[in-house]
Write a structure and sequence with these properties.
Length: about 90
């Protein structure tokens, strides 16, 4: 699987660290215990296009939002986290 870093170009996925689901929303600080439990422990297992966080550890060390098809592993898009519309 190749991921195109905006700064370093196309690189093998082995250069990257998978950081999790980019669509998870942090609850408010005063949210209840159940909301925090869900945030920490519950994750969907989507089929198809999904937004994920990846860090280019062996390169520029920047965090990216990678849109990847979980069925085919095709990379559909890559954008810097700072400019990503979450």
């Amino acid at each position: 699987m190749l991921i195109r870093c905006p700064w370093c170009g196309e690189r093998d996925h082995a250069e990257y660290f998978y950081g999790g689901d980019a669509t998870v929303k942090r609850p408010a600080e005063n949210a209840g215990v159940q909301a925090w439990n869900d945030y920490v422990y519950l994750r969907d297992n989507p089929k198809g296009p999904h937004r994920e966080l990846w860090q280019h550890q062996a390169g520029c060390r920047e965090w990216l939002v990678v849109t990847r098809d979980t069925l085919t592993h095709d990379i559909l898009g890559v954008e810097p986290v700072k400019g990503a519309a979450r």
